[in-house]
Amino acid sequence: MFARLNQLARHISRPLPKFAHNSAAASRLTSFVPTSSTMVSLEEKHRRTIHTAGCIIIGDEVLGGKTVDTNSAYLAKFCFSLGINLKRIEVIADDADEIVEAATRMSDKYDFVVTSGGIGPTHDDITYESIAKAFNLPLKLHEGALDRMRRLSRPHPSQPKFDWDTPSPALKAKMRMIELPIDESRKVDDEQVIFVSEDLWVPVSVVNGNIHILPGVPRLFEKMLDGLKPRLIPRLTDPEGKGVYRILFSTPLAESAVASYLTELAHKVEPKGIKVGSYPRWGKSRNTVTLVGRDKEYMDSLVAEVEKGVEGRRVATEGEDDEDAGSDKDA
Predict the structure, then answer these.
(1) What is the C-alpha to C-alpha distance for residues 137 and 292, in angstroms, rounded to an integer?
(2) Residues 82 and 233: beta-carbon distance below 8 Å
(3) Is the pTM of this model over 0.85?
């Protein structure tokens, strides 16, 4: 019993992680225990092979139903096309405690982390300052981003008297968008602040080696994510960026009718790293079965077998062989 008490005392006496000392979230985050990957150097995080990804969608407007999130879907397709295993998508509020917790946890767990939202000029845009707090970093006005902002952005029609050289509430608000979390111990600036296009002043801020902070505006999010691709490809499992291979099958059978066969198929192909999926299509006459993996040659060799097993056929896109008069399929 005394041995157990001593063990518990040693555990409780461990120092808190950095963000718990400096965040209002500290009292709720003391259960976080650093793993060996927490100690991975920033240099290694910048260079290591990207196997996994995580996504944090930040915004009260998404949780409140005012805005529909399309960025996570775009990221999912982006990761699939590159062969990156997107493991988790979370939607959280514009809340400092939640941003600190999610950013710290995902940075520790995944190779490539993307955040969306919360980097605008208003009071509720707190992503930069929250992630800075999570990793004990200062917010610094980035001169390169300021130069680009002055050159590429134009005052809103409602601000005809805006002047870059005259202090004003509007100028102060704009400056918030280029006050970035900066690790001053690192000399390589373009590993922390990335400009993906000559016609954009908005930077991708990279924190702790693997968190990439992007805007929530879908058009910007998509363009900036695509702009990161040349930097990511050399770090992929497949440097040629061929991604994952997917085969779709259309079946007239209900899921319950193919369940037994698909279970056997899943056990058979699992050693090859291939996943079998089954997707009911409510109100349609045909359902969908998928094979997803990297071994294209082996997967192609299974086509005839799967077509027979599900009494269907391979299709290029879901629904291409739907009948006009469909019937609900059971599960």
Answers:
(1) 41
(2) yes
(3) no
